[in-house]
Amino acid sequence: MQKTLAIILTIIASSQVYSQFIKEKSIDVSIGFGYSTPNEDIDITGQGFFMQGEYVLTLAKWIDLRPYTGLILTNDNPGNQPNDPLYKSTANAFLFGGKTRIAVPVPWVAPYLEVGLGGSIGSFKTFTPSTNIDYSGLILHIPISIGLELGPNHNFDIAFTYYFHNSVEQFVGAAAIGISIPLSK
Q1: What backbone phi and psi angles, to 5 degrees, belong to 13?
Q2: Mean pLDDT lowest for which of 15-29, 52-66, 89-103, 109-123?
Q3: Is the distance from CB of 91 to CB of 165 less than 8 angstroms?
Q4: CA–CA separation, 174 vs 36, rounded Å?
Q5: What gap in Å lies between CA 161 and CA 173, rounded to an integer?
Q6: In a domain, 35, yes or no
Q7: Is residue 138, in this structure, part of any structural domain at all?
Q8: What's the CA gap between 34 and 56, in Å, rounded?
Q9: Which of 2, 71, 109, 182 is the most buried (most CB within 10 A)?
Q10: Residue 5 falls within a domain, yes or no?
Q11: pTM of the model
């Protein structure tokens, strides 16, 4: 009888407790200048467009989780290939995955670092003196970003974002600006 009463009281008490792991939710949208470059130390780049959307789950003022989707579209830049117009680095891909952002929550300007894991679906070309890769499909990438959250509520963002595609021996990146749109509770 005492065990049954204890179980019933625990269930009633548990139903009255509201623990909130996620403090805030928002959507972040970024757009910017995209580029692709080989992992080698050689002056070959592709240039183009970048955009990304993130669903932000804030755990504390200094840390949040960010599932994301994005798009990178780069074309070869014929003016920067060393002595051979066949050298190129291009990426046209849909990006998806998850990141964690760690920020220094100071007023108006909060520097941050992001790291995560994701995948890219698309086409990748890396042609250099020592690499000849033309791949289409799904590959793994590692996202890393550094940036600043701006404004009294940190609703604006300036970032340098990188996605390392080791299997195609290139990385893509972006210089982007963004805005955060809070979601109602």
Answers
A1: -65, -40
A2: 15-29
A3: yes
A4: 9
A5: 5
A6: yes
A7: yes
A8: 22
A9: 71
A10: no
A11: 0.82
Farthest CA pair distance, the chain: 87
Question: What single-letter amino acid sits at 35?
Answer: Y
**Residues in the chain, total:** 185
**Tokens describing residue 171:** 């990385």
- Residue 171 near residue 163 (C-beta atoms within 8 A): yes
**CA-CA distance, 51 to 56, in Å (whole number)?**
16
Joined together, the tokens standing for residue 177 give 């600006």
**CATH code, 54:** 2.40.160.20
Q: 120: which 2 tokens?
A: 């890219």
Instruction: Give the tens place of pLDDT for each residue, 137-161.
Output: 999 999 999 999 999 988 999 999 9
Distance, in Å, from the CA atom of 33 to the CA atom of 51, rounded to the nearest integer, reads 9
Tokens representing residue 72 in the block: 């990178």
- Tell how far CA 173 is from the center of its chain: 10
3-class SS shares of the chain: helix, strand, coil, % to 5: 10, 65, 20
What residue numbers bound the domain in which 41 lies?
A: 22-182
10 found inside a domain: no
Kindly report, residue by residue over 20-41, the tens digit of the pLDDT.
677 889 999 999 999 999 998 8
d(C-alpha 77, C-alpha 37), whole Å: 11
